[in-house]
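Researcher: Next entry in the queue.
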Amino acid sequence: MTALLHNETIDVLLNRRSIRAFRDEPLSEETVATIETAAQHAASSQYLNDWSVIRVTDQERKDALAEIGGQPYIATAPALYVFVLDEYRNMVIAREQGVDVDGDAFTLKNSYRFSQAQNDAVLALHAMETAAESLGLGCVILGSILNDIPRLIELFELPKYTYPVLGIAIGKPAQEPALKPRMGRGLQFFDDVYNSDPAFVTRNIAVFNDEVHTYHDLRDPNTPVPTYDVQTANKATDTSVLERGFDHAAAQGFDLDH
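Model: Structure for this entry, 258 residues:
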């Protein structure tokens, strides 16, 4: 295996892990300003800046998020953010510039812009996460907040042309979990064309199964965990995710069929 180059940035990225227990210490104003500004410096498709973030400080809303996500630690996170894709602001700008935002010519509501705004929100969140971890903080990305999208929209009074993407909890770590193993590079990086040989996948996943099994055994040998392939198969038939699709996007004004 080729040796890796190292610097402070690379080491932060290589050592990222999800932190779900935080010390009861607030973040300084300087820390908050730094990680929020780092998020703003992420790439943005066509310079539309089509994402926004809600910093959740109200305890009742934090409790509600923890209930939606089914994860009590969300309510105690020192810093809690919800990232949303946001074409509302751009709609207002376009309307002020004379665009008929109720007509067919208005394309900020369509699938391409929705997808790109979602991408931009994720890029900004990742920049915030990396900045926070570089300062010695711990983070966990919260996809679980999408368990109840209508409630999330109501909770944060999200207007038309906005849509929740992900949450992130940040604080000083109160735990030090082991690094999860990553599958072999060859399973995810290809030269020139995608390797779709099923035998290649099966052969290499068998190796990864052993690494994942060892990881879970070291964490808690008394709690058996299915192998990676079994976990994946179980998730492939998990019908609960059907409630988290983009069906609610139409109620927010988006037309994802075009």
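Model: The first strand starts at residue 51 and ends at 55.
Researcher: Noted, moving on.
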